Amino acid sequence: MTHDTDAPSPPLNDIGAYCRAVESHLCRVNGGHLVRIVGPAFELVAGWAKEGMPLRVVLHGVDRTITRLTAKGPRRRPVRIEFCEADVRDAADQWRRAVGVRGAAAGAHGETNIAADAATTARVPSLPKHLERVLVRLSALTATREWPASLIDALTTTIRDVDACLDASRGARRQARTAILDQLGAIERAMTQAALASVPDVRRRELLDQVRIELLPYREQMPEAAFRQAAEALLGELVRKHFSLPQVRLDG
Fold first, then answer.
1. Per residue in 108-142, pLDDT tens?
2. Helices (H) and strands (E) in the chain, counts
3. What's the maximum distance between 2 C-alpha atoms anywhere in the chain?
4. Using CA atoms, how far apart are residues 71 and 75, in angstroms rounded to an integer?
5. pTM
6. Calpha distance 180→46 (Å, rounded)
7. CA atoms of 181 and 165, how far apart (whole Å)
8. Containing H/E element for 74?
């Protein structure tokens, strides 16, 4: 189940508009049932805005909950926003790790995010399985979609390089695994740069505006160099999403 979670985000300081957008999306994914965000639910969603969670990330978390519950069978009641909190926070933690920022709000939730980061670090994901998924995704995309000419060669190179990393990853430990992870980061950067060069100018300006809006809550608390890195990482994420490209790097 997929839904449009790329609608322009209201400013995070416009709490009312933010909560109305979440409410509208929640009603839509509940088949049109009216699910009001008021009282404790409003405070919950307003807290997400104050923490600096981009609207599209929150909606993605809601979609995760709906998809999982739908897979279990027909639902007797519409899903309330409180039941989506775990998926929303997980989606926000993933976004923060990918971009390289912390929550804008301090407090108990900040401790939760740190604990989640520590738990993620403790898990060691399977590198070969990750690379197999990347190759399947890239192969399917190149076989079923028309790509800008400037991007075709880059994707062909990406598939070749990831395939070579897959061969090397089987049984790789410690330094060998770290070297492959570093190589995957370089492969992803090259693919992302090629994708960025292929984005139409109008769409690129829209993506840059989205970067500015999503990172605005973090602007004052980050050193200039760190903020530039976060903006570059977020732009790369949005560009890959624009072309439905997979994440090549493995965080962990």
1. 344 444 444 444 444 567 899 999 999 999 999 88
2. 10, 0
3. 54
4. 10
5. 0.73
6. 41
7. 9
8. none
